[in-house]
Amino acid sequence: MLPVQGRLKSTQSANSWHVWKLAEKEYCPCGLSGQPLSGPDIGGFAGNATPKLFGRWMGVGAMFPFCRGHSEMDTIDHEPWSFGEECEEVCRLALKRRYRLLPHIYTLFYLAHTRGIPVAAPTFFADPKDPLLRTNENSFMLGPLLVYASTLPDQGADQLAHTLPKGIWLSFDFDDSHPDLPAFYLQGGSIIPFGPPYQHVGEANLTDDLSLLVALDEHGKYLAAIQNHLKMHLNFQRAELIKDSFHVVLQVHVRANEAHLEVRFSGSNLQVIDTLQWWLRVGVLMVAARGKAKGVLFEDNGDGYEYTKGGYLLTTYVAELESSVVNVRVSKTEGAWERPRRRLHVQLLLGKGAVVDAWGTDGEVLQIVMPSEEEMSNLVSESKKKYKTRMENVKHIPNLEKVSGDKGVELSKTPVVLKNGEWALKVVPWIGGRIISMEHLPSGTQWLHSRVDVNGYEEYSGTEYRSAGCTEEYTVINRDLEQAGEAESLRLEGDIGGGLAFERQIYIREDNPKVFQIESSIVARKVGAGSGGFSRLVCLRVHPTFTLLHPTESFISFFSVDGSKQEIWPDSSEQLYEGDRRPNGEWMLVDKCLGFSLVNRFNVSKVYKCLIHWGTGTVNLELWSEERPVSRQSPLRISHEYEVRRIS
After folding, report:
1. Are 5 and 33 in contact (CB under 8 A)?
2. What is the C-alpha to C-alpha distance for residues 427 and 436, in angstroms, rounded to an integer?
3. In whole angstroms, what is the distance from residue 301 CA to residue 299 CA?
4. pLDDT value at position 323?
5. Range with the lowest mean pLDDT among 79-83, 220-224, 305-309, 551-555?
6. In 3-state terms, what secondary structure has residue 154?
7. How far apart are CA 430 and CA 147, in angstroms?
8. Can you tell me the distance from the alpha carbon of 631 to that of 532, in angstroms, rounded to the nearest whole number?
9. What is the C-alpha separation between 181 and 95, in angstroms, rounded?
10. Region 531-551: what's the mean pLDDT?
11. Alpha-carbon torsion angle 412, 423, 17, 186, nearest 10
12. Closest CA to 130 of 291, 255, 287
């Protein structure tokens, strides 16, 4: 069977926590668009990853349909063992998880091929009516399996407050929980298959043990059962009830991954109240166990052809609770294959980490006796203790920004941070004086697409792409200038050869903290006498690369010098505006989904050309000065500013 229509991967992903955070947003919707085999380059394609970033990325990337580590030339080694033993262990656990879940993932590809159901989908796919899930950027779905990860370098998945869809979601692991690995939840009413932790699929055999994870859904009969238990037990307390005029009201709530019962009562007999609370605890345990579950397993020989001739086995498994026994059985089969003779291992999830294991033969009914209240309490207690012990003993990946090896040396330097009002900027003077981070604090939006040594905010000294000025080392001339009206300021200077220098000042004004300004100049310092005091031809070219958080909902808007209104969308080709077609001192990147626009204002008398270039999930809004020689008396200058504006 050929389970996909195409393959999509990223060749543009950079090594940063911001880009990794975007990976889930970028690739999960691909399944909704008919491209189920998709995934980012694990660790990021461009630049050098850090140990923690690579380990976290592998933990999530191992769960994506398309799983591959990949990086560009001239970067440090990006194998798991290149980042230390702690990162290597996390990567080993992540890949082991993938191999255990391959039966489930392969089945999801069958469903994608036959029904158009995505392999990986955004979390809101579980409940499209819940608006909170549409803003969740830490999780995604693999069928009924919810993968929840942390994209914050200083917080593991165990420290996050997990936002789950409505209904029952039971947590589980393979005795491999780790702060740098994502957490797993299985939706109530679901069964998913998993297998042994193979080193490679060539080790697999159809007669190997088959395992099923079962999470029962909620069921409406538990309330009557609890009420009957209460009635029977309280008959022994009839005299006390009459004396105290006791009244009981039970309410049932299902939220997150647990079912809860609430009791309201009147009366003062403490013995009766204790009795009610005891039965309430019993009721909660009964709720966790009530219900049904269903799931499928697709099997073929993996070559993609025999499927078309019926050479496969599609099995539907169901689990049903009757009294205190869960029956797991085959309800339906499809395909010409005979069922292999193999053992069946079922893990019944009970909530709060408690699991009941049972063994049988695949194809036969397997019965699981539900645990008593005391047994349930012990299972939960043991699970919590095991989880706590494991988390206390794991080796955490060190939070290092420096990577060993010459190619990672730029990460050992610390960017200069400007933070005031609504902006937080990061500048790296040692590589082109570039701005690598431009975060708008009120909206939490990172506008720049960048890594340390390329993209972000760059400036060139010529019309050629990446001409002198974007890679030279700049000197910090002054920091935090104490001038009137300035709260945060940075002044840089870089030698670009031929007696020329770049001067750049970046500042956030105290009297208007919504705006930050950049003033740039190309100045002549030591121009030879034979040139008449003038330099070579130069052009000050401002080249910022902005991230399109929502590419289909983003566009460029401005009024031209001639008064005409322009809206430029990503499907347009590269656009160059000169003369009266230039923006009249202001243009903006509008994100309709985000509800904000990034406004760029400039002195139109100093800007001779404006260029828009659309990339993959990016856009450049370039300002060009005139192209001419400069002297000490006639530098090239561009002054401009940025502000985020809410759109109506």
Report:
1. no
2. 6
3. 7
4. 82
5. 220-224
6. coil
7. 39
8. 9
9. 11
10. 88
11. 150
12. 255
Summarize pLDDT for 153-199 with one digit per residue, the tens: 677 778 778 888 999 999 999 999 999 999 999 999 999 999 999 88
What is the identity of the amino acid at 199?
Q
Select from 13, 25, 20 the least CA-distant residue to 594: 25
Is residue 246 classed as helix, strand or coil in its secondary structure? coil
Rounded to whole angstroms, the Cα distance separating 168 from 435 reads: 45
Contacts by 120-124, CB closer than 8 A, 24 or more apart:
120/27, 120/28, 120/31, 120/36, 120/38, 120/63, 120/64, 120/65, 121/28, 121/31, 121/32, 122/24, 122/25, 122/28, 122/29, 122/32, 123/165
R_g of the chain computed on alpha carbons: 31
Tokens, residue 619: 């856009």
Q: Are 427 and 506 in contact (CB under 8 A)?
A: yes
Residues in the chain: 648
Phi-psi category of 298—alpha, beta or left, where left has phi over 0 and alpha has psi -120 to 50?
beta
Structure tokens that stand for 72 in this block: 């560009």
For residues 187 and 216, give the distance between their C-alpha atoms in angstroms, rounded to a whole number.
Answer: 8
- Positive or negative: CA dihedral 565, 570, 571, 572: positive
Strands 325-334 and 313-322: antiparallel
Angle at 271 between CA 267 and CA 275, to 5 degrees: 95
**Cα–Cα distance between 291 and 60 in angstroms, integer?**
31
